[in-house]
């Protein structure tokens, strides 16, 4: 009978783990940060207010395309006119970047371990008696990650446009730069790094090529994305924090708690 990893059952170990290190720190920190982000983003999304301080628009609400959007925040028009006034404009947009993150390969690992303890860490026993993978509902929906990637690219382009127009003053005159401009700029750079370092992006650029020499442009792009992919978890965390900080800064401006620092 086969033994070890080829055995028919899991190893019978009475203890949860034989590890001596503090393996529980990573899933605990992940749990706290994710939960904090979920609570904060849910509050901001459902509040539907204090998201625009000219010329800055919160990334949670961009693009603001509902007729309930405040004046000056809809650079792409307001084609969505069938929703009630109380419906937050963010709920139209956040489904795409959040869907991209929730189905992300790295984030799956992170929240599977921290929220579901499946498993909590390497060589740590999980509380679940069996594992069916991502072949059944609802986890089979993780397979739509690539489609969310396409939507995430569109959102990143729109956020880049928001940075460009953030070089205006509150009267929409060009030649302005404030702290909000820099915050949005840093945020969109991290968003692009996270998006382009995605595993799906790497597969799309060169995953199915059989001969790289016949596709030199795609090979160069695949090589570039592969280098970014090595740091994908860092970009995931950094962009998650930066998008929340960008929204919070604009919230403080919109509620007149602080004033924007002007550089010129």
Automatic annotation (TrEMBL):
<feature type="transmembrane region" description="Helical">
    <location>
        <begin position="147"/>
        <end position="168"/>
    </location>
</feature>
<protein>
    <submittedName>
        <fullName>Uncharacterized protein</fullName>
    </submittedName>
</protein>
<keyword id="KW-0812">Transmembrane</keyword>
<feature type="transmembrane region" description="Helical">
    <location>
        <begin position="23"/>
        <end position="43"/>
    </location>
</feature>
<feature type="transmembrane region" description="Helical">
    <location>
        <begin position="235"/>
        <end position="254"/>
    </location>
</feature>
<keyword id="KW-0472">Membrane</keyword>
<keyword id="KW-1133">Transmembrane helix</keyword>
<feature type="transmembrane region" description="Helical">
    <location>
        <begin position="86"/>
        <end position="107"/>
    </location>
</feature>
<feature type="transmembrane region" description="Helical">
    <location>
        <begin position="174"/>
        <end position="194"/>
    </location>
</feature>
